């Protein structure tokens, strides 16, 4: 059973040198939690410049879906790089972009013909969807949710409802974005319990918001993460999305599913919306779409994506190398990795639920597929978030060679590459067990 191998103090001498050098030149706005320097990656494993080997359960923030440097992805990148690196798909044609658009439409959950807009990142995909919703409806208001993360460009940031530091000093943002409580049943905004609550969060939008400050006929879109990502890997009840969909249909509001983090197989389905059996109007994608090449996409039925030439575009969006990497990625997802995400996710959550028996600070275990999290609390009754404990566990895991990331106020997310094996999950659980029991 392969395990992490830490042979120097961390950071080691070469890593420490790089971190100091980086500090001289790289923007201090980045949020590096622990001092990992990644020199090379293969599958689940990251090697630092001092030869320490880490097991990666963060996957470059849920990006390296097929593992680091999957040979088939590397081959596709190499092949395309020797043929054509850039041409700009906004002004010219090349086969990689058309082929990927056709593939994304084919795997998408839309029941009618659709088209694809390409971007370079998640925020850019959200930005494009924001503009598309306004363009299509000619309406000024947009709704998003507390806890949502949609990116950091001005439009995407306006939809984001995550941390105040992300917004401090950046107002005025894009106007007419209203936030509503998400269906976070572990920490219900209304102090109610599902299903007795009868989806109070939806009722509030329908009966309060739409009758007081927001005329529903003026709402262009509701942006919603099928499962909230940065907000804490929060899985809402199926009914949440179903009732929200009904509401949007009633008023002609576009339902934008932000699948930047939950899409591309991570949840055990190609798109998380399939778990909820709800067909949205627009889907945004990025992160896992191209195994680490910068690419984002917006998919929408052709009656919605009907904007004319010049209304939106990007020089680099749909870069040929990124598109070929994405085609290779989707091929791997369809041939076993989505299924693996489902099975390994079950194994992981079973193991985490067992850990809950011996660690009183694990308040909640939740997720779908390999979009799984644990939330730490000071007490199971009070449910008081315990971020200091979470941060310490993430740090300790690093020193044991396990790469994790936090999310939400006091949760740890497990977002490994979808190639993760049964043994890898066992190794991760054993390391966590040791860390948590040492703290008990
Ligand atoms: C759901 C969601 N939307 C949008 C984004 C923004 O993506 P990017 O960081 O590529 O701009 C993220 C990033 O975490 C995300 O999780």
Observed structural traits:
binds pyridoxal-5'-phosphate, 440 residues, single chain, four-stranded mixed sheet, Aspartate Aminotransferase, domain 2, 12 helices
| Major sheet attributes | 7 strands, mixed
Order of helices and strands: HEEEHHHEHEHEHEHEHEEHEEHEEEH
What are the distinct ligands in this entry? pyridoxal-5'-phosphate
Helix-strand makeup class: alpha/beta
**What portion of residues belong to β-strands?**
15-25%
Tally of helical segments: 12
CATH topology of the domain at 117-314: Aspartate Aminotransferase, domain 2
Which range best describes the helical content: under 10%, 10-25%, 25-40%, 40-55%, 55-70% or over 70%?
A: 25-40%
Radius of gyration: 22 Å
How far apart the termini lie comes to 27 Å
List segments where confidence is low: pLDDT < 50 over at least 5 consecutive residues. none
Physical arrangement of strands within the biggest beta sheet: 4-10-9-8-7-5-6
CATH-derived architecture of the domain at 117-314: 3-Layer(aba) Sandwich
Given this structure, which CATH class of the domain at 117-314 is correct?
A: Alpha Beta
- Overall geometry comes to globular
Average pLDDT number: 97
Q: Total strand count, please?
A: 15
CATH superfamily of the domain at 117-314: Type I PLP-dependent aspartate aminotransferase-like (Major domain)
